[in-house]
Amino acid sequence: MNELERHLHYPLGDTLPAPGRAIELRRGVKWVRMGLPFALDHINLWLLRDALDGREGWTVVDCCISRDEAKAQWEEVIAHELDGLPIVRVIATHMHPDHLGLAWWLCERFGCGLWISATDYHSGRLASQQTTGFGGENAARFFARHGLNAPQAQEKIRARGSYYPSLVPQVPSSYHRLLDGQVLRIGGETWRCISGYGHAPEHMALYCEARGLLISGDMVLPRISTNVSVYDLEPEANPLPLFLASIDKFRALPADTLTLPSHGKPFTGLHTRIDQLHAHHQARLAEVRAACTERAMSAADILPVLFPRALDLHQTTFAMGEAIAHLHALWFDGALRREAGADGVWRFLGV
Length: 351
Hints:
This protein has helices spanning 68-80, 97-100, 103-110, 118-129, 137-145, 151-158, 163-167, 239-247, 270-294, 299-306, 313-332; strands at residues 22-26, 29-35, 42-52, 55-61, 87-91, 113-117, 176-178, 183-186, 189-196, 203-208, 213-217, 258-261, 336-340, 346-350. By secondary structure, it is of the alpha/beta class. It has a single domain, classed as Ribonuclease Z/Hydroxyacylglutathione hydrolase-like (Metallo-beta-lactamase, Chain A, 4-Layer Sandwich).
């Protein structure tokens, strides 16, 4: 447990769901944890007892990436945790592979529909058909423009042209649109959609006032800070202010709300965590600004400032996106200016 976590409370302590099994947090609300083959090695999925169009069953929130190991875990969950009932609805908080990857498989298997924001649905469909922001030639050129131009790194990024489709091979051909403020009836109770920006195109968290539960997706995580990145599809985006404004929406929820994050353990202390995330990013912005005051810095130059540890390629691409996001926040705010060098690399310098 890091020092910041000591200010949060984990009602279940260190208890985690066993692979292919669930923990019931409230009556009809179950927590499933599935493995991921990344440094971030798991995702939390949520099962909500439901009845839809006269059909008794379960609503699933998020799906895991599409791979055989995840399907095998789902088979265990289906056999042991659904009380013999079907899945009647799949909700994806957003389009990232660990959340949307198996939506097609679950929807086809149970003849049910997908609920997701329009922006993330169309982003996910596009990304499943071609590379967008995760690898390939365009991503390699984008990262090179920001200083990540070592031949070995460039070769590896180009080779990841099918990264997203390998994890999300397809997306259901139709969907039900989620909008900010929309209310879903799930299990006889209301769950309100809360939109979020900066991490995904149009992330949707779900809040149930009657249960005192917030399914926060990736917008509020207890142990790590959510990735906020700039990608090649929108090379001059400014996502960090959008993210910070989005998490402030959760301040209106009661302080004792039990937050169900996509990574980490269910916790209380939502307002404290929001304060911690703001403080974290303000500290990172100050470090970036100080570094750029000494000399002009590219995003690649900033990596050891923001991430003073060894990074693999998967982590490096996310770290580059975050570095650019922090540089852009300062650039758009007028604290830095941007210049293209003779080598074509963007560098940022304090004003």
